[in-house]
Design a protein that fits this description.
The complex is a heterodimer. Chain A has helices at about 45-55, 75-85, 100-110, 115-130, 145-160, 175-195, 205, 235-239; strands at about 1-15, 20-30, 35-40, 60-65, 70, 85-90, 165-170, 195-200, 210-215, 220-225. By secondary structure, chain A is of the alpha/beta class. Chain A has a 6-stranded mixed sheet with strand order 6-7-8-3-9-10, with helices on both faces. A 4-stranded antiparallel sheet of chain A has the order 2-1-4-5. The mean pLDDT of chain A is about 90. By secondary structure, chain B is α+β, with helices and mostly antiparallel strands. In chain B, about 45% of the residues are buried. The chains are: A alpha/beta, B alpha+beta. The interface between A and B is medium-sized, with 29 and 21 residues.
């Protein structure tokens, strides 16, 4: 089943008189259950593409379909609804709300959609355990390491059981060991729950986990290949 | 909802010092306004009270043609047989006291001093004149048959340097337009704690005042006090006649009442200015917190929070800030106005030269009314929430992509 489809998308930014062509005509189809890595040099348009897939931004031209629905036609509130129900985000910075505990951060998306308290509690606890943070539920972000915070962010991204999780350089601010753990967790969650992951990176240690690698350069897709046997390097050797 | 406010409280707690100082700004603004309002209320109340007690009474009966501003002494402008009429009025149930008074103008002089005065002939035994009798500082009060005694106020006595027992010249206009002069002995010196009045008014026994001005058996007015101010209208009705006019305290003290209305208008403007200033402090605080949390707003938007809810989040913060600031302000304002309600606020003789139209006690006792406190609280709340609207909209309108791009 197709989760997302991008058709002939361009995205130009105008800053003063300068126009940056971040995406210059990109088409891509993403199937349910994929573990896809967007790679490419800095400025190639990875973040821009993720933002379009995530209904955070709208293309200059072209169409973006999520679950078969053309999201380029949605208004602000409809896009917010789409994000809430179908998309999970993981960012490069550990995007937690500093005044909330790990539990409350994960609970937040559930509060926005009508889940009752018991449901929320059970789901949050299960998610925190799946990212190996069951014990840390009541710690605030400043009481956790970067790796732990990023795992909380993963749990939060999965809270509403989204069809698509988008991660923009999720390991860029982590050391090798923590980065590896985060990737392992994402990979396992992908295999266990079948949730689709799309992550942008230029770190080989990260994209070695991927089962499909899409390479961008100067706003265009220059390569799209499947990886038969993803071969993440063991932590010991790369550390 | 509870969640919303609990989180708002935590968000305010991120920068406790800043939160505290913005609440404090609101609190101080509100406290200042409460004190001002209490001061004005106290002043107006006491001005009216003083004017009624010392000058106008609740009602006065005068001849139809009497013109107060001319202090006319012509017989046709006066009331004949005032004692008789006063007794009749006093027999009405709501009337506490009715007493004739004669007003004349003149001046007192010593060898090297001269000062214009208002002469009031009073019935020294009447309860109506208790404020003067009770205000006696030295010497003694007038007796009805005293033919050479005069009562003068402390400011005048101080100015001319005379005390009880000393002699003084008094000149007075008479009913036929002449001026007569006689020597009087200062029987006593009084003070009503109202410098404007005390400095300008001298008292004679009614009989002496009548004989001196050639107005035997006449009075300018019957001065009436009621048990209950609320009965004024009813008694005015009852006293209606074809020969006399009956004036109420409200008619006689129009200036004070107008001033009160006017000052209320000015005060509202002043309130809005002060609250406007505190509002800018609050806007500033909230705008800062919106900008500091730009990236968080981006995250919230990314996980699907809508603008409306983001706005509610910041409005909840300004609501809490408003509640905190207002509670603190009410407490401070209440304490400050209680202090001055008890100890008073000495303003001295600031209106000394403005005459006796507007009498103000030398000490103002603040009076915080429930209506002032309520309206100021509501006003402060509205202004603060209105101030919170701008930052909240700012947060709600942020583009998620831009917000996520922010440095922090
Ligand atoms: N909001 C914006 N305004 C102006 N230019 C932008 C904006 N967003 C992105 N760009 C530009 O678009 C191009 C693609 O940016 P993008 O962030 O998608 O690259 P990226 O592949 O994610 O790079 P990196 O690996 O450094 O994160 C860049 O040249 C960038 O400067
Ligand atoms: Mg990027």
């Amino acid at each position: 089943m197709e989760v997302a489809r991008v058709v002939n998308v361009t995205r130009y930014f105008k800053t003063g008189d300068v126009e940056t062509q971040a995406l210059r005509g990109v088409s891509l189809s993403i199937q349910s259950g994929e573990f896809l890595s967007l790679v490419g040099p800095s400025g190639s348009g990875k973040t821009t593409l993720l933002q379009l897939l995530g209904c955070l931004d709208r293309p200059t031209s072209g169409q973006v379909f999520i679950n078969g629905k053309d999201v380029t036609k949605l208004n602000r509130n409809q896009r917010a609804d789409m994000r809430r129900g179908t998309i999970g985000f993981i960012f490069q910075f550990f995007a937690l709300i500093p005044t909330l505990t790990a539990f409350e951060n994960v609970e937040l998306p559930l509060l926005l959609s009508n889940h009752n308290a018991a449901e929320r509690r059970a789901r949050v606890q299960a998610l925190l355990e799946s990212v190996q943070l069951g014990e840390r539920a009541h710690h605030r972000p400043d009481q956790m390491s970067g790796g732990e915070q990023q795992r909380v962010a993963i749990a939060r991204a999965l809270a509403t059981q989204p069809a698509l999780v988008l991660a923009d350089e999720p390991t860029a601010n982590l050391d090798t060991a923590n980065g590896h753990q985060v990737m392992e967790i994402m990979s396992r969650l992908n295999q266990d729950t079948g949730v689709t992951f799309v992550f942008a990176t230029h770190d080989p240690r990260v994209f070695n986990f991927a089962r499909r690698i899409v390479t961008l350069r100067d706003g265009l897709i220059v390569e799209d290949r499947l990886v038969e046997n993803p071969a993440p390097e063991p932590v010991e050797t790369s550390a | 909802m509870i969640q919303l406010f609990r989180n708002a409280l935590r968000d305010l707690g991120r920068n406790r010092r800043r939160t505290f100082f913005s609440a404090l700004a609101l609190a101080l603004g509100l406290a200042l306004l409460l004190l001002m309002a209490a001061f004005i209320s106290g002043e107006m109340d006491s001005a009216l009270d003083t004017a009624i007690r010392l000058q106008s009474g609740h009602l006065q009966v005068r001849a139809k043609t009497y013109d107060q501003s001319k202090t006319s002494l012509k017989w046709e402008d006066l009331i004949e047989n005032p004692d008789l009429i006063a007794n009749q009025i006093a027999s009405l149930a709501p009337v506490k006291v009715a007493s004739p008074r004669l007003y004349a103008t003149g001046f007192v002089s010593t060898r090297n001093y001269m000062s214009g005065v208002r002469i009031i002939g009073i019935d020294p035994l009447s309860e109506a004149n208790a404020p003067y009798r009770e205000g006696l500082l030295s010497g003694e009060f007038l007796a009805p048959d005293d033919r050479s005694g005069i009562l003068i106020g402390r400011p005048l006595a101080n100015k001319i340097g005379l005390s009880a027992g000393d002699q003084i010249q008094l000149s007075a206009n008479t009913s036929d337009g002449d001026v007569t002069e006689q020597t009087f002995t200062i029987r006593g010196i009084y003070s009503t704690q109202t410098s404007a009045f005390d400095g300008a008014v001298v008292f004679l026994p009614l009989a002496k005042a009548q004989s001196m001005t050639g107005t035997e058996n006449h009075a300018s007015t019957i001065f009436i006090l009621l048990y209950d101010k609320g009965q004024t209208g009813a008694v005015q009705e009852a006293l209606q006649s074809s020969i006399y006019k009956v004036l109420t305290w409200a008619e006689m003290n129009e200036l004070i009442i107008q001033t009160e209305d006017l000052s209320k208008g000015y005060m509202t403007l002043f309130y809005l200015i002060v609250l406007g200033i505190t509002a800018t402090v609050i806007v500033n605080t909230l705008v800062m917190s919106v900008f500091e949390r730009t990236r968080e707003i981006g995250i919230l938007a990314a996980i699907g929070m809508k603008g409306r809810r983001i706005m509610a989040m910041f409005l909840a913060e300004s609501t809490l800030l408003a509640i905190g600031g207002i509670l603190l302000g009410l407490a401070l304002g209440y304490l400050a106005s209680s202090y001055f309600a008890h100890y008073g606020f000495y303003i001295g003789d600031i209106y000394g030269s403005s005459g006796t139209d507007f009498l103000i006690n030398d000490t103002i006792y603040t009076k915080l009314t429930a209506s002032d406190a309520t309206s100021l609280t509501v006003l402060a709340f509205i202004v603060t929430l209105a101030a919170g609207l701008f930052p909240a909209i700012l947060a709600a309108r942020m583009e998620p992509v831009d917000a996520l791009r922010a440095e922090k």
